[in-house]
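call fold(seq) -> tokens
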Amino acid sequence: MTDDKTLFSEIDHVAIAVNDLEEAIEFYRSTFGAEVEHREVVDSDGVEEALIKVAESYIQLLTPTKEDSPVAKYLEKRGQGLHHVGYRVKDCKAALEAVKASGRRVIDEEPRPGSRGTTVAFVHPSAAFGTLIELVQE
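ret:
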């Protein structure tokens, strides 16, 4: 349960950057019996994603579709692993404005379309103890 001061309603997803999406999907299938619930190419971000549902949240497996995408750069610099955490918010624009009003650095100045028909915005990792945060409005 959230109160009026809390911007987050729950964790939407944990994103994991991978080099080989099929290999990652097979790992989750064969190891945990998990199946992909949604799969999508997000051209604007240069990624393909596979979402595995866990309760009311997701594991988001991400692989780049373009060599210059942020996920491609991440993989080149840091290798595979945790990329970001997405938190559900009631109103992405209001949540983003609250983050900016607190003086924190953001990546997106305005919310934008995300996968699954969501609206999203990213908070810079330097503002959040090295963690890239995605605000997700369903």
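The mean pLDDT is 96.
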